[in-house]
Amino acid sequence: MRELLLGLRLLFGSGPGNRARFLLMTLGSSLGVCCLAIVLAIPGILEAQDTRVLARQPVTPRSQSGDAVVDGYPLMLARTDPYGSTPLTRVFTARGTRTVGPPPGLRAFPQDGQVFVSPRLHELLQQKTALALLVPGEKVGLIGSAGLARPDELMAYVGTSRAELSGGKPVERFGELNGPLPTLDPATLGILRFTLAAVVLLPLVVFLSVCARLSAADRARRLAALRLLGLSKKGTQRVNAAETVAAAGLGALLGLGEYWAANQLVSRVGLPGFTWYPADGALTFQTLVVCLVGGPALAWYVGRASAGKAAADPLAVRRGAVEKAPSKWVFLPLVAGLGVITGYCVAAATRHAPTSTTLSSWLMPSAVLLAGVGLALSLPACSGFLAQRMARSTRSLSLGLAMRRNEAEPGGAVRVAAGLVLLIFAASLAQGVVIELDSVAKNTLPVQTYEISYGELSGSQRRAIEALPGVRAHVVTLTPSFGAVSEGSPRPEGVVATCGQLRSAVRWAEGCVDGRLMRLSDRGQPQEVRAGAGDEVRFGHLNLKMPRQTVRYRDHEGITVLRNGGVLVPPAVLPADAIPQNATLTLVSAPGDRTVRTVLDGIGGIAPTAGVITPGLIVDAFQRVTIVKTLLTVGIVLGLVIGVAAYLVAAADRAVERRPQVTALTLLGARAGTLRAVQVAQVVLPLVVGLVPAVLVGKMAETSYLVVGGGTVFWDGAGVPVLLVCALGVVAVAAVGALPLVGRRIDPELIRRG
Question: What's this model's pTM, rounded to 2 decimal places?
Answer without folding.
Answer: 0.73
